[in-house]
Amino acid sequence: MSQAIAGVNVSNMKTYVLRLSPGDDPKAKLQAFVNENNLKAAVVLSAVGSLTKAVLRYANSDNPTTLTGHFEIVSLSGSLGSTSGSHLHLSVADNTGKTVGGHLMDGSAIFTTLEVSIGAMTDLEFKREVDPISTYKELKVYPLNPK
């Protein structure tokens, strides 16, 4: 059964473009940027870059896996919020094209760069609340200043 997350008309989206540097932890840097700018509801619009270390939590796994080497970022997507935290998925490819993906965890390291565009919905706030069906903290979307 599908359910609409929000019936809110978003009138404003502010965009940001960041370039993260070699050695930076992408998850920590993105969360720090969101916190410093008090962005309540943001999403990754695009991301291009590379890693020397990727820390991923695979589906249905409790523990993260650390990959070391040189990896191209194939995809980075997800949500960010200064009050909700982040929920990011990352896919990376090695020099043979083998691609793996999962939840981006703390501790990854950028190789050359990470160019990332972020869209912040200024009319919304993301929160994480326990879902009675999944039993996990799931995304809930609220109007930032309801009238």
Descriptive account of the structure:
The structure is a single chain. With 147 residues, the protein is mostly beta strands. It has one domain: Hypothetical protein, similar to alpha- acetolactate decarboxylase, domain 2 (60s Ribosomal Protein L30, Chain: A, 2-Layer Sandwich), CATH 3.30.1330.80. It is 7% helix and 56% strand. The chain is built from one helix and eight strands. Strands 1, 2, 3, 4, 5 and 6 form a six-stranded antiparallel beta sheet that branches. The chain has a two-stranded antiparallel ribbon with strand order 7-8. The longest helix has 11 residues, at 26-36.
What are the defining features of this structure?
147 residues; 60s Ribosomal Protein L30, Chain: A; six-stranded antiparallel beta sheet; two-stranded antiparallel sheet
- Within CATH, the superfamily carries the name Hypothetical protein, similar to alpha- acetolactate decarboxylase, domain 2
The top-level CATH class is Alpha Beta
- As a percent range, the share of strand residues is over 45%
Fold-level CATH name = 60s Ribosomal Protein L30, Chain: A
List the helices and strands and how they pair.
Blueprint: E1 13-20, H1 26-36, E2 42-57, E3 65-81, E4 85-93, E5 99-104, E6 109-121, E7 124-130, E8 137-143
Antiparallel strand pairs: 1-6, 2-3, 2-5, 2-6, 3-4, 4-5, 7-8
Give the gist of this structure.
The chain is mainly beta and 147 residues long. 7% of the residues lie in helices and 56% in strands.
